[in-house]
């Protein structure tokens, strides 16, 4: 069984999403002794934003020398995702949505013919066999009925993205209100870590 662990926070050891994603991976590692884990830190090994040269290479053109290495890195990212049975992602909210580092990674895994395809009935996701667990951290409260609900473009976006490629086994571990105050942060982190440590083994 293979697990892909992705982190995207720029805060290093101060990151809540990193703490929670690590706890989720450790829980699954303990429950599955033979688990093979691949780790990718999107801030330490950043991918380039897509350009026309990237898209041309994706259509079969020889990669321009200026993007050759990045195109190869993007192919490796896609292969890591396709090979994984389980994916654990640390995803903080930055300015109401995902970090740009995570968006670049998503751009490399949403590939027609690999993770989705179009047919007579419309789009068909091809990654439905995967389990995806996402540790999200938000500075405030964005749940339904809250004053900030309309600005929640983190969880809603990720639900849409993974639903598009067919993932139905999608789990979120939220830590909300971490910037509201120390007590809120402590409670949010403790709750998220408890949820991570209680994940089903498979």
UniProtKB/TrEMBL annotation:
It catalyses: 2 a quinone + NADH + H(+) = 2 a 1,4-benzosemiquinone + NAD(+); N,N-dimethyl-1,4-phenylenediamine + anthranilate + 2 NAD(+) = 2-(4-dimethylaminophenyl)diazenylbenzoate + 2 NADH + 2 H(+). Binds 1 FMN per subunit. InterPro entries: Flavodoxin_fold (IPR003680), Flavoprotein-like_sf (IPR029039), FMN-dep_NADH:Q_OxRdtase_AzoR1 (IPR050104), NADH:quinone_OxRdtase_FMN_depd (IPR023048). Its EC number is 1.6.5.-, 1.7.1.17. Quinone reductase that provides resistance to thiol-specific stress caused by electrophilic quinones. Also exhibits azoreductase activity. Catalyzes the reductive cleavage of the azo bond in aromatic azo compounds to the corresponding amines. Homodimer. This is FMN dependent NADH:quinone oxidoreductase. The lineage of its organism: Bacteria, Pseudomonadati, Pseudomonadota, Alphaproteobacteria, Hyphomicrobiales. The gene is azoR1_2.
């Amino acid at each position: 069984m293979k697990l892909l662990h992705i982190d995207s926070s720029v805060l290093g050891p101060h990151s809540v999403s990193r703490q929670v994603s690590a706890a989720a991976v450790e829980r699954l590692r303990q429950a599955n002794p033979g688990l093979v884990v691949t780790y990718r830190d999107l801030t330490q090994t950043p991918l380039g934003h897509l350009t026309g040269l990237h898209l041309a290479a994706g259509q079969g053109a020889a990669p321009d020398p200026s993007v050759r290495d990045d195109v190869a890195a993007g192919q490796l990212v896609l292969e890591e995702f396709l090979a994984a049975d389980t994916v654990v992602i640390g995803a903080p909210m930055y300015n109401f949505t995902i970090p740009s580092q995570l968006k670049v990674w998503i751009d490399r895994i949403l590939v027609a013919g690999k993770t989705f395809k179009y047919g007579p009935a419309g789009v068909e996701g091809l990654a439905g066999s995967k389990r995806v667990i996402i540790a999200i951290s938000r500075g405030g409260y964005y749940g339904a009925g809250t004053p900030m609900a309309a600005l929640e473009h983190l969880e809603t976006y990720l639900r849409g993205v993974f639903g598009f490629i067919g993932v139905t086994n999608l789990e979120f571990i939220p830590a909300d209100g971490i910037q509201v105050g120390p007590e809120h942060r402590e409670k949010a982190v403790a709750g998220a870590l408890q949820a991570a440590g209680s994940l089903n083994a498979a």
